[in-house]
Amino acid sequence: MSNKMLFIYNHVSRQNMTEELKECASDITVSTIKNALSLLSYDVISINLMNEQQLRETIEYHSPITCAFVIAEGFLSEPSSLYDGSGALSIRQILESYSIPYTHSTPKTMEFCRNKDLTYKILGETEILIPKFISFSSPHLTEKEMIEAEISVGYPMFIKPAGGGNSLGIDELSICENRNDLVKKIGQLQELFGEQPILMESYISGSEFTVAVVGNASPTVLPIIEFPNDVQVRSHAVKAGEYEKRDSFRLLSPHEGKGSEIAEIALKVYQGIQGKDMIRLDLKMDQFGNLFVIDVNGTPSLSSKGSVAYMIETLDISMEDFLGYMVYEVTRGKSFVSEHVEEVWKSVSKKLISVDAQVVA
Predict the structure, then answer these.
(1) What whole-number distance in Å separates Cα of residue 232 and Cα of residue 246?
(2) How are beta strands 43-48 and 4-9 bridged, if at all?
(3) More confident: 164 or 279
(4) Superfamily assignment of 132-202 in CATH?
(5) In the 8-state DSSP scheme, what is residue 163?
(6) Contact 22, 168 (CB under 8 A)
């Protein structure tokens, strides 16, 4: 009997791409991951996820399923489920109901990550720094609520959707210097996402960093990226073009200087949100050198042009081997693990252990 792996993703054509669907994986990312997984001694069953019924029917038709590799954020038939957190939770709850091990975060962790106000509340109960913030369940703010935001957060203020990732709804208009800016941005978010919750936080103008934590028994911090400070807002459009500017990134060792401080924060966040397999978080540094966590992503992009791909490339780890490492982390002690996957895991683990020797401080 073959060992079957579900590969669950969201993909739409460029012609059908809208703002709310921008987190969907590209056809290149989908094919790259599918091909890599097929090399791990699994029969890969791909599913471009439309709805819950499709997922259940696929599982029942192909049962038994050994494990699932999940990068889908929700259901394409319900676009809001891709960014409001409901889809990510439902996918994992369905897999758990069939006792299928899966990659990436648990339902609880995804609830934390897909609701930025909840992320801040969880982290705010620790010593981890977060921006001053206030959230509202709707962008229809009254005069009283605007005043409340101005008093509790103050200007300059940064406005973004409370749900979603990949910088959805974030652009230069997100930085608000006054009431007029605030009203304009709120109107834009309402037009893009309807009655979705919004988050208002203090704007931090310093350097921005992104860092990933991988693994379970012994979580490891990957090389940390410091982005050039030539743009104020890393919008979706800016991120799409960053691949061409990688030479301007600064890599920090997670064992030295500011990188060590960031790594310590990242591991505390990983523990605080009960992370599994991998998370990526973004931080900004203020004028005094204080580091603030501004976002946590439970299913970081595995695009070849994304930050995680660049981090593992600097360690001479291929995306294929990295996916094998993740699959082993999920399946060991639970399901079938081929000798090949175990060997890949050992090889990647050695490179992760020597991460400090592979980057430029």
Answers:
(1) 17
(2) parallel
(3) 279
(4) ATP-grasp fold, A domain (3.30.1490.20)
(5) B
(6) yes
Domain boundaries, the chain: 4-102, 132-202, 208-358
Detail the DSSP E strand segments found in 113-172: 133-136, 157-161
On the CB side of 112, how many CA atoms lie within 13 Å of its CA? 25
The SS3 assignment for 73 reads coil
> Is residue 209 very low, low, confident or very high in pLDDT (cuts 50, 70, 90)?
very high
Check whether domain 208-358 has CATH 3.30.470.20, yes or no: yes
pTM of the complete model: 0.90
**Burial of 44 (C-beta count, 10 Å sphere; 0-12/13-18/19+):** middle
Give the tens place of pLDDT for each residue, 75-84: 999 988 888 7
The CA distance from 359 to 361, in Å, is: 6
In the prediction, which pLDDT does 166 show?
64
Looking at residue 269, its amino acid is V
Question: Using one digit for the tens of pLDDT, what is the confidence trace for 301-352?
Answer: 999 889 999 999 999 999 999 999 999 998 887 777 888 899 999 999 999 8
Element (H, E) at 330: helix 319-331
Kindly report the CATH number that applies to the domain delimited by 4-102: 3.40.50
Check residue 264 and give left, alpha or beta (phi > 0: left; psi -120 to 50: alpha).
alpha
Q: ∠ CA 117-121-123 to the nearest 5 degrees? A: 115
Q: How far is CA 239 from the centre of its chain?
A: 13
* Cis status, amide bond into 64, omega within 30 of 0: yes
- Average model confidence (pLDDT) across the chain: 89
What pLDDT sits at residue 235? 67
Task: Give one word for 273, left, alpha or beta, with left for phi > 0 and alpha for psi -120 to 50.
Answer: alpha
